[in-house]
Amino acid sequence: MFDHVTLMTLDSLLKCAFSYQSNCQESSSEYVSAIVELSDLVIDRRFRILHHWDCIYWKTQQGKRFKQALGVVQRFTRDVVQKRRALIAQQGETETQTNAAPQKKKDFVDIILLSKDEDGQGLTDEEIQAEANTFMFAGHDTTASAICWTLYNLARHPHYQEKCRQEVMELMEGRSGDEIEWEDLSNLSFTTMCIKESLRLHPPVQAVTRKYTQDMTLPGDLTVPEGVICLVSLYGTHHNPEVWSNPHEFDPLRFDPANIKSHSSHGFIPFSSGPRNCIGQKFAMAELRVVLALTLLKFRLTLGVNPECSSSSGTVRRLPQLVLRAEGGLWMQLEPLKESCLREPPNK
């Protein structure tokens, strides 16, 4: 699932945030391959102490591969930004000549290209590329992980999968098409509960860091001094039995509105928390609900077996890279649902 879903989330992000038609689901994507290689190399570098020094790392085979993959990513984002800059300039000329109001809403790349500070200065090309790289990488890889693990958890729990499907079917009843509208998202309450429980059980980002800007007193007469960098384990918090009862079980009802009040305010932090939390969390949650709804409307999900693995137990081992993946991938079977089945009452 990871390969297919990663291409889909990249395609979606580029269309929604950059107005860029990549069609990377229909043709091979050098960018996605480079992102995966960079992720692997970053993880590998962490465990090689001598590679922590740039003067050594860039001379190694891994360092040379890193620079090559990084070049692919930078060329890709530079191409996207340059095309959008040219289009904005063209649209500006057209609006000036016709004296017409702009029709298109601004997307992410429009905002970073047009933003100016109090002195009227815009972002430099390097700053724009850095923002674009961050948004594209963080915006598609993490969401792909969240979608895959949610589909996996629903495949493991068919009764929850069916309940989500019925919720979507009731929402779409009487419609000729299968498009999800923005207003529909708030009506997918149980589906959203399943998504949140999956994010708790399998957070795409396992940890974040924060730097203390002042001394912090802790219980037991301990003090964390200013300047220290603290690693906050999102995965550890989500699996802490003092925070969550039966933390390793998939139980969407934890996020029933009636139960939320009993949660710790920072016990569920898949998008981090505070002023430095994830800038794209609303986009990610919207995409998760849309993808899940349309997938369940068309397919029944069951667990698959990795053809390269001799074990048939179906056991999946988590693979903590830059985002949470599965060792050997997440394999599932998708059975197309017949249209007649979708029209049957829920009790049949």
From TrEMBL:
It comes from the Eukaryota. Keywords: Heme, Iron, Metal-binding, Monooxygenase, Oxidoreductase. Heme binds at residue 278. GO terms for molecular function: aromatase activity; heme binding; iron ion binding. It is an enzyme of class 1 (oxidoreductase). It catalyses: androst-4-ene-3,17-dione + 3 reduced [NADPH--hemoprotein reductase] + 3 O2 = estrone + formate + 3 oxidized [NADPH--hemoprotein reductase] + 4 H2O + 4 H(+); testosterone + 3 reduced [NADPH--hemoprotein reductase] + 3 O2 = 17beta-estradiol + formate + 3 oxidized [NADPH--hemoprotein reductase] + 4 H2O + 4 H(+). Its EC number is 1.14.14.14. SUPFAM superfamilies: Cytochrome P450. Its cofactor is heme. InterPro entries: Cyt_P450, Cyt_P450_CS, Cyt_P450_E_grp-I, Cyt_P450_sf, Cytochrome_P450_Monoox. PANTHER family: CYTOCHROME P450 FAMILY 4, CYTOCHROME P450 FAMILY 4 SUBFAMILY F MEMBER 11. Catalyzes the formation of aromatic C18 estrogens from C19 androgens. Belongs to the cytochrome P450 family. This is aromatase.
